[in-house]
Amino acid sequence: MAAMAKEVLARLPEGVWQSVGSWHGKRIMPRSDAAFAGQVQALTHPDQCTEQPDLVLECASQQAVAEFGEAIVKRGWRLAVISTGALADAALQLRLQQACTRYHGRLIVLSGAVAGMDGLASAREGGLDSVTYQSSKSPASWRGSPAEKLINLDAVSEAQVFFEGSAREAASMFPANANVAATIALHGLGMDATRVRLQVDPHTQRNTHPLTGVWASLASSRLSCAATRWPATRKRQRWRR
Fold this sequence. Notes:
By secondary structure, this protein is α/β, with parallel strands linked by helices. The chain has two domains: about 5-110, Rossmann fold; about 115-225, Dihydrodipicolinate Reductase, domain 2 (2-Layer Sandwich), CATH 3.30.360. Helices cover about 35% and strands about 25% of the residues. The chain has helices spanning about 1-10, 30-35, 60-75, 90-105, 115-125, 140, 145-150, 165-175, 180-185, 230-240; strands spanning about 20, 40-45, 55-60, 80, 105-110, 130-135, 160-165, 195-200, 205-215, 220-230. The strands form three sheets. It has a five-stranded mixed β-sheet with strand order 7-8-6-9-10. The protein has a three-stranded parallel β-sheet with strand order 3-4-5, covered by helices on one side. Helix 2 links the parallel strand 1 and strand 2. The longest helix has 14 residues, at about 90-105. The radius of gyration is 19 Å and the shape is globular. The two termini are about 25 Å apart.
């Protein structure tokens, strides 16, 4: 949370009131306070906020969305979510949608690391037939994830797909690595109809996110889009140069 939130804070104009929720437990509050150098007010629950924020930006985790998302939109606030994989939980998504309707809140799905979501949403209205998304990352980017149980990351010598399934399955199995799959699904055909492939590539240091959409009603037209980026740690190193 701290790394992403610090990048956001660095780009806000001066004078903007800022508050950071340390909502994974009080044990991280001292670390959060130090990380933000007194720039923010730290909270442990949305109910502690006595102001009316223009926007609540989630930079935490799927767990944070599940635990506090409903409380935020029930206050009529706008909640922008980057950990979109949390919405693979159909019951949670329904509760958030119902709370937004009843309490006039708003749930905003951020595009994050992928581009072309406006085109995908437009294609859906034109009769989108299928959507396939593939995430390709280096072995280092998959370490610490369930990928280690599906493939030997130390022995990979060429690009290899180690997971194929629905966006719902990908977002649930890889909560820290497959939020893009959920984002694409929410703008396109939904969690169950969107197909996902996860790939490890030992010959790249970048994360690549190509997607393909096909709709039969327009003479088999095809939408293709790909975003390529450095992993977060590498980007921070490049920015410091």
